[in-house]
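Query structure, 687 tokens:
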């Protein structure tokens, strides 16, 4: 204090209150300035074109088009506003982190006057945390959509056509501090898609999903083991408050090597009808007639709907499914309305809630009472956001757009192969019921959240020898984005399956520093360089195999690749193909050895120098074939075991061995020609 008097608790509280108010006031002032700038950009676009409002709440250009200068000017202004918004968010996050540390230290030094929880609750009521400023993101999305002149696809009549669809989905973890950057990178190419039930004031929507399973967690283990035909059964609704419209969904896993793809199917019911669905009393015949008379559905669509409903009602009864796990999060969806070519969803504030331990009242109650408090072991809060990139399968859209690839290579996405909220929630909150756990539970960044929810029994001890669990968790340790408890990598850059190809492509066709261009297109403070990418590489697998040191020309030995967080898809025939290739190479080596041994055995002593030389040259080559066959078999077995993406063939080994064999054959051919010429000359002289 000014008069050097002791600082009292009242002084501390007063200072904290003033600083919190200062951050809130400054943030509000800056956001108001950004809103004014957005108003001006929207006004300019409306003045340049005839405009209409789309379902995304964005400005869509009419018949008249903006010229290039106007588009560039508006886009530069929007970029400036977005970067200012990101800087403001960083300012708020740093201040809030400082408050957390100050309050934590205060409670530690003054345990009799603890106040951290009180002020944390106050901070959570700040406008920034509540999402009151997310309208800036929505309006920026509308501006970019207008500048791109997005075409809105007309919604198809009837909902049956949308009930079943095939898709390719890749999931990523995103650090909390990178969420706004990722949003900005996406909305430059896709608009924020607001659901019809959304108010339009926020870029995200509360989403609840209740997953069903039985006492043996049969569906959990089926989804974890990726058993063909394994299903996930859930009831989902959107928006705050009690559900009104409920989506009954079934996800079915299929192995791609069989020629089939995983599929999600769903139908909608009112909340009052959920009990009927769960108790096999749903009036299917009445609903069928209603679909035909009022909704105009075709006979084929109605038959498909009826088949799906009967199967989903039957599986509840046969497998005795009950509410087991609930996921809750704020979802931001990016999509051109009714166009499924590229869809991206970003789930923040993700938490999993156990749905065990209360009376379901015969299906009348299928989710927890939100008014009742939860125990620590009934909820786990996930520390990262989850990003899903969903692409339409087949046709001209088989390859993702370039901007999607650039985002994957930006260093902010951490690909987690086959991550599942349902599986993670069951493993963390029902540890006594699970027989096996997913590999990602050993990741260092989520360990604390699992421990706080009482799931410590599924984790290895802090001083564990390897830092990961037994079995498959040891095999797929390299897939952990942030390392394990023994070797944590909490500051690691984001890694995806495309990162390796980016590094390889940069080495072959681009100068130094080109890898950083991708990220800097969106955010100036993303420090991704070639050196940082290459520093996190690993050696190929073949130096660990026997005879690997004899074949430095092997592809896997010299090619440095960035450890990915994705895995190569494995088909059962790959194992047999590896064995057949090994036997073919071994057969070639044994054949050469047999030829060499026969030449040595049957060559005459007279004039046998050429034959002996030829045989002795073939012997080491045959040995090389056998050793190379063994090395290649072990190298590919390691590739199959770790499923690291990349080339699994060796283009140099066969070329070198084949060239060596051809040289020996050519030399032998030349020497034989000389012998024949010498023999002919001697025969002619005698005559």
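Result returned for the query:
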């Amino acid at each position: 204090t000014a008069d050097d008097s002791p600082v009292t608790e009242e002084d501390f509280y007063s200072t904290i209150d003033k600083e919190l108010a200062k951050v809130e006031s400054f943030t509000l002032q800056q956001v108001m300035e950004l809103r004014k700038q957005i108003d001006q950009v929207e006004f300019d676009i409306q003045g340049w074109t005839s405009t209409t409002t789309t379902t995304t709440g964005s400005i869509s250009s009419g018949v008249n088009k903006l010229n290039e200068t106007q588009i560039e000017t508006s886009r530069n202004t929007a970029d400036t506003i977005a970067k200012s918004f990101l800087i403001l968010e960083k300012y708020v996050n740093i201040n809030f982190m400082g408050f957390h540390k100050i309050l934590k230290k205060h409670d530690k030094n003054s345990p009799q006057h603890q106040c951290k929880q009180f002020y944390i609750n106050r901070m959570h009521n700040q406008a920034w945390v509540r999402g009151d400023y997310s309208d800036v993101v929505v309006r920026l999305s509308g501006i970019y959509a207008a500048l791109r002149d997005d075409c809105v696809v007309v919604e198809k009549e009837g909902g049956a056509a949308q009930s079943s669809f095939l898709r390719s989905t890749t999931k990523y973890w995103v650090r909390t501090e990178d969420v706004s950057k990722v949003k900005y990178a996406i909305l430059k190419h896709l608009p924020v898609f607001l659901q019809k039930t959304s108010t339009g004031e926020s870029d995200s929507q509360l989403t609840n999903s209740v997953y069903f399973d039985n006492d043996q967690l049969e569906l959990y283990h089926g989804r974890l083991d990726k058993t063909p035909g394994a299903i996930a059964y859930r009831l989902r609704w959107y928006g705050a408050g009690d559900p009104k419209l409920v989506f009954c969904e079934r996800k079915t896993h299929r192995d791609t090597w069989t020629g089939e793809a995983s599929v999600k199917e769903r139908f909608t019911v009112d909340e009052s009808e959920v009990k009927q669905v769960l108790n096999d009393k749903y009036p299917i015949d009445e609903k069928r007639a209603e679909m035909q008379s009022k909704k105009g559905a075709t006979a084929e669509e109605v038959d498909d709907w009826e088949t799906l409903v009967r199967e989903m009602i039957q599986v509840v009864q046969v497998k005795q499914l009950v509410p087991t796990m609930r996921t809750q999060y704020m979802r931001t969806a990016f999509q051109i309305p009714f166009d499924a070519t590229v869809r991206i969803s970003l789930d923040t504030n993700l938490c999993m809630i156990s749905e065990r331990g209360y009376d379901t009242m015969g299906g009348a109650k299928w989710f927890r009472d939100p008014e009742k408090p939860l125990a620590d072991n009934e909820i786990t809060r996930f520390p990262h956001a989850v990003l899903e990139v969903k692409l339409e399968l087949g046709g001209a859209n088989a390859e993702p757009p370039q901007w999607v690839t650039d985002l994957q290579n930006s260093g902010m996405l951490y690909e987690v192969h086959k991550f599942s909220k349902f599986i993670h929630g069951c493993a963390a909150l029902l540890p006594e019921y699970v027989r096996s756990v997913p590999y990602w539970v050993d990741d260092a960044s989520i360990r604390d959240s699992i421990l706080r929810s009482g799931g410590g029994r599924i984790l290895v001890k802090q001083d564990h020898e390897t830092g990961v669990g037994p079995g498959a968790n040891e095999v797929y340790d390299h897939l952990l984005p942030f390392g394990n408890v023994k070797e944590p990598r909490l500051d690691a850059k984001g890694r995806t399956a495309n990162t390796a190809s980016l590094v390889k492509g940069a080495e072959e066709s681009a100068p130094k520093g080109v890898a950083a261009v991708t990220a800097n297109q969106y955010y100036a403070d993303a420090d991704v360089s070639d050196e940082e990418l290459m520093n996190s590489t690993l050696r190929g697998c073949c130096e660990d195999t026997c005879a690997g040191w004899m074949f430095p020309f092997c592809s896997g030995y010299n090619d440095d690749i960035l450890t990915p967080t994705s895995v190569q898809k494995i088909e059962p025939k790959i194992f047999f193909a590896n064995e057949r290739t090994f036997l073919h190479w071994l057969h070639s080596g044994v054949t050469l050895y047999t030829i060499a041994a026969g030449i040595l055995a049957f060559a005459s002593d007279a004039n046998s120098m050429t034959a002996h030389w030829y045989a002795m040259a073939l012997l080491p080559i045959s040995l090389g074939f056998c050793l190379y066959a063994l090395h290649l078999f072990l190298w590919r077995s390691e590739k199959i075991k770790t499923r690291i993406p990349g080339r699994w063939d060796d283009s140099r080994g066969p070329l070198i061995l084949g060239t060596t064999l051809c040289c020996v054959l050519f030399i032998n051919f030349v020497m034989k020609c000389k012998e024949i010429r010498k023999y002919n000359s001697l025969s002619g002289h005698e005559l």
